[in-house]
Each structure stands twice: as structure tokens, then as C-alpha cells.
Amino acid sequence: MDQKELREQEARCIQENAPGCTAGCPVHVDVRGIVNAVRKGDWAAGAAVFAKTVPFPGIIARICDQPCRQGCKRGEIGDPVAVSALELACVAGSDKPAPRVAALPAKDRRVAVAGAGLSGLTAALELARKGYRVVVFEAGDRPGGSILGIPASRLPRQAIEDDLAIFGQLPVEFRFGAAVGGPGMSLGALAESFDAVFVGVGSAEALCGLGAERGADGNAAIEPATLATGHPKIFAGGSLRRNRDSRSPVASIADGRIAAVSIDRLLQGASLSAGREKEGPYATSLYTNIAGIEPRAAVAAANPAAGYSAEEARLEAERCLLCECRECVKACEYLAHYGSYPRRYVREVYNNLSIVMGIHHANKMINTCALCGQCAALCPNSLDMGEVCLEARRLMVERGKMPPSVHDFALRDMAFSTGEAFALSRHQPGYSSSRFVFFPGCQQAASSPQPVRKMYEFLCGRLEGGVGLMLGCCGAPANWAGREELFRETLLATEKNWEDLGRPTVITACPTCYSMFHHNLPGVPVETLWTLLDRTGLPEGPAGLQAQKLAVHDSCTTRHEASLHRCVRNILSRLGHGAEELPHTRETTVCCGYGGLMLFADREVARKVVARRIGESPTDYLTYCAMCRDNFASQGKRAVYLLDLLFAAGGDDPAARPAPGYSDRRENRARLKRALRRDLWGETVTEPESGVELIIPADVRSVLEDRMILDGDVAQVIVHAETTGDKFEDTASGRFLACHRPSAVTYWVEYSPADGGFLVHNAYSHRIEILY
Amino acid sequence: MDEQKLVCVKCRIPLAPGDVTLTYMGSNFPVKLPKCPRCGLVYIPEALATGKMQQVEAALEDK
After folding, report:
1. Of the candidates A16, A207, A682, A708, which lies 20 to 30 Å from A728 by C-alpha distance?
2. Stated pTM of the model
């Protein structure tokens, strides 16, 4: 990932974009900040937030035309938030004295401002703060311009005086009764005697009367982004840019500020136009989901003339939705776990990849993502954290920076599936060609070997032209681990077997296998078992389970396969059962906690993912991936695997089946292969040598599962200890303790001989090596 | 397991703290661990393996 890609990915997350109110405000008042202050009753803080972008808060809070309300999401389901009333509550409730103005050191450049209305006063204030010497020319006898025409009942004169008192602290000279355009004071003359001029004289006619150039429409030509006119030293803005009926006090303030920035840039010799796109109002690209938000009427002030009471303001502030996106974070336990959102996460991933020396703090985050694509399905801009994390994993592997322990267990399990013990590829017994080949997938066979066998036998009878069988692994664990080379090798091996079988159509039971083949082996025709069964008919068996409703958990690797989703529900209905839809279903479904090998990177997060999913409905779940089912079952959720359901008889309870442990998952695969070879192909199959007889009590079994120690690992330690004599004895209990390091992990086993075998008391492991 | 009660089965003698070098991902650490004073067989207690050693492994892997 280079800087450019990082920026592109970051830009797709719009969580940090301004809410509609702030974006729509010409000076971008932080409305959420004000709302938060009001909720806390911290008026001074609210007033400070307001004053940060609004120079005359007492005036604007009373007369603002509130363009912010156009962008208010509350407005889409009722009354928009009464923003001005909240601002006024802050200004009125804050008893802090007006802040002292810190002006920059005085400069020797002089700026003339024509007109002491809101735009002129704002320009004068901003330029004086920057250290310019400002002279304001006003035709009337006091500052204020058109606001002086507002009734005092709405805008008390004291409020104007209070806000304008700020000029007492700044080197601004006011010349009243001095109309620009009058004798000896032409615009041209001002431009000659000052370094720059801002014209805010209230009407376009007046500006043209001063000799400004006219545009094609006959009005004075003013560049909207910079307020530049045809004269390089003259800028113009305020009400003169607007029709009489669309005048806006806050837009005038914005104009004064934009002109001040332009004049400052002019006098500093900087570009007038660079990077000014978001100075005025704009439409935000922040997405905020308002589904399920109850409309609530705006709070009416009991005494409208006095504005909101403290309690009224607080109630109104409660209506604000504090707009933000977080669509993905709300739905994904993994994204929520780190307390932030993808824009930040993408940056963390990038930084993690850039570290040369030091700790890679984001390794765990990168490796814990399920790569399931739910975030992309929910994101308004399809930002896919899975894509970012997978790319990062590949780079980590490439650079030798992938922590070796993370994926070791899963990759060894994959090697088991692609190895002698499980892998198999052949035509249907009695056939020399295959029109189809059934690829059940390693974990389906690991979890549910009997139904896998029954399904194969059913397909052989149902489909014409020969149904071959391929046992193995699609390579998903290597893909998820960022092990591109291993993944490609695995795919190529599958492709080679497929070619040797005469290029049959591949039927996968596992959604992940389907997804891996579909996206990575474009020449291989592939279909899921479930769409095939829906098309060709279900096995007829004994009377199945009593009709029940099952909540369908869609597999994340096939979230975009709408026909698969439909077929699964059809099958359920043909079996006489009802389908319940979970809150996140079909294309927005959630990972079961296994995807991306998250379970191996951070078990705590994986457990949270499972816990959240299984808490979504009390109904028994239906999955069409055995791994999903086992993850739910491992945390006590009743869940049925569709393949089990197809072959379930009346008294069965496939939802209660415990999830097999890691050792059983291997044994199930090996046994299935042996049974099929023996029973279907009539081969002589030698059962493996019984080796060491292990007795593993239930509590020790759960320790082994937790520590991902296989029975085979335990047996190897004991065989090693018993043959070499390298072991310790606890003289109090008579138990032995020994260790063995077959490859990258040292296993320790505490055991004692019992009944011709060995009773296992405990086991643990470490990767650090003892050099002696 | 009680370390005081452990004996090396081959040598039939109790363990004593001794110098051991542990290594992971190119880093070596000299440590004192219980071992057989005669044949040198090292004992790693469960608490050490699942505690400190695991932390060190994780820290080195993230370096």
C-alpha cells in the first residue's frame, strides 16, 4: 500500500466529514459541539464553540437565517433542530466576559473597508486580528448597516453594542458619514491610497455605481470563491451579492471572512484560489442512517421573547442526532473493538506497514479482521477493511514480518486436509469419467462426515454422467493468512485434479470453497450444493424433523450470491420449515467468527463476534456451512447445519450436536476417507496403527482445545518420553512430565500410565526454544 | 506440579536452578531455570510457559 492508495482508502470513509448542519453553514459552526455543551449545561463552552467561527455571536444567534437547518437529518423526519435557539441559550447563559482579542503584531499594510455592515465589520475584524491597519468608511453615523433596521424586540441594541465592543481592542479606525463614491473618495482613489479594499456596501447597484466592472448578467463581476473583482486590489461581498429577499446575515459574515482571507493572501503574495473549496457552504458527503429514529417535535420556548430556558435548551439538544456514519462499526464487533472507525484504522495499518524499527502495534488488528466484506456492503463508499487487512497480511508475509504463531495451527490443519490423510480425487465407482465432482470441503467433512457421505451417495444416484469425489482443502486458510504462494499452489493442485477428472462441474457444499473457486479459478465451472439441490430435488429420506422456524445465518463468503440465499430458503421451506431473517442477513450478513482466521489471531474478539451473532435471536439457527454452526454451538447456541437437517430423522436433534474438537475434526476427515475408499471403491484399507492409547478426561480435553493441542501432539510427547527416558517424575504423585518439539512448538504433557494406555493430566506449549 | 518434588527419571536426582539459554526469532536470553544437574534436562513450569514466555513470544513477533 503506497501513500496514494492509503489516501484513496481513507477518503472512502466519510465518518470525519462534517454533518449537514455544519457543512451547510457558511461559516461552518460546529453545531454538534454546541449541542454537546448544552446537554451538559456548559453554556460557556457552547458560547466558546459558537464564537470560534462567528465573530458577533450575540447578534447572529438572534438573527441568523439558519441555512444549517436545511442539512439537518432531523428535518427529514420532522422539525430540524432549533440551532439558533441553542446558540442563543449559550450566548445568554454564558456569563464569562467577552474574551480578549489577541491580534498579531502590527503590519504596515493598510486596508480600506467600505460599509460597516456585517460583511464589512467581519472583514475589518479579521484583518485587524491579522495585524493590518484597517479604516472603515461608513456613510451612516454608526456601525451595523442593515441590521440596524431590525426591531429592537428581536435584536436588542445592547446586543449590538456588546458584540461591537470588540473593536475597542483593535486598531480599526471608523470614519462615519464617509460614503465611498462621495467627493474625493472614489473606489479608484481608495485603491490607490490603500493596499487593498473590501466593499460591502449592501447593494449591487451601489457597487456598480462605484465603477466596478459588470459581468455578463449586468451585475458586478465577483469571483465567488475569493470575492475578487475585476480590480486586483478590490474585493466585494455581503448583501450586495444577494437579492433583497435572499439576504443572509451569516452569509455576510462568511463573505467578510472570505474577503479577509483573500486580502491577506494578496498582501502575502500567496495564491488567492488554492485550497478554498470548502470555505463557503457545501453539501456534506457524511452519511447518517436515520432508519428507526422516532420523530420528535421541536421544543417550543414557554416564553418566546426570552428564548429557551436551560431545561428547554437541554431537551431540544437531546433531539440532535449528533450525525455520524459508523454504519460498519455499528454492525461489526471487530471494528467496534478498537474504539474507532476505518479512516483511522486504514492509517494505522499503513503506519504498521511502514515501521522499520519498533513495535508493530496493529499486527493483531490486521490479523483479526474476518475479511468478510460486511463493512464494504454497508459503507456508502464500499470501503472494505478486509481488502486493506488482507493486502497488509500479504505484505507482512512477503517481508517476513508476519508473526509466525498466528496462522501456524490453521495452516497445519490445512496441510492435513491437503495431505495423504484426507486428500482424494477420483471418478464415481464404476465410472471412468465425471460430469460432476463433489467437493464437500474440509471442515464440512471434519464436522459432519456421515451426512457428507450420504450426500455423495445421493448425488451419485441422482446425477447422470458420473459424480467424482474430491476431498481436500480449497486453500482458504492460506488465502486468509496472506500466504499467496501456498494459496496458489493449493489452487493449482485442485485445478490439476479437476483436469485429470475431465473438467467436470464442481459442486461444493462449503460456501467458502465455492467463493475461493469462483473468484480464483475462472476456468472451473462451480456450483453450490444448495443451488443444485434446489434445482434437481432433495433426497427423500425418513420423515424429517417436526416443522419448526429456523433463523437463517448466511455465510459471509457468499454474501453476494443472491440465488444461493434464495435456494437455501427454498430448501428449508420444502423441508416444511419456516425461515426467520436475522437483523444482518444475505448481503449484509455477519461472519461466524471463523472467517479470516480471526479466531487464531484474537480469540477474545472472535468470541465477542460469535456472542453478538447468537444473541440476535432466540430461535435455533440454520447454517449452510458446518464451521459457522460449530462456532455458534461452541458458545451454546442451538444451530443446525443444513446438510445434517437434510438427513435428520424424526427423533434426531441436530441443533444439539456439540462442536467437535480439533482432534476429532482431524479424525473425522481421516476416517471418512478410509470408509469411502473401503465401502465405495472396495479398496483394502489398513487402519492406522493404534499407537498410544490416550485417556483424556473432559476437563483436560477442554484445556487441550483451548490451547490448540492435538491428541497427536500429546501422543508424540509420550512416545518420545517413553522411548528416550527424557522425563521428570513428580515423586509425590508418581506422574510424569515430558516435552517434545516436533517442529515450531514445544509441547509439555503431564501423564501417568493407566490401563495399558496413558492418562493425560495436563498439557501446555510454548514456541520459545530451549537451547540448553 | 511441585518443582521441589520433581526428579529427572534417568538420573534419579532432584532439579536445581541452572543456566539455560532460551531463543526465539533470533533473540537469545540467558535465564536461570530448574534443570537436572547431571544430564541438563530443563523443566519449564506451566505458569512460565503460559505467562511470561507467551508475552515474550508475542513481543518478539511484533518487533
Report:
1. A708
2. 0.90
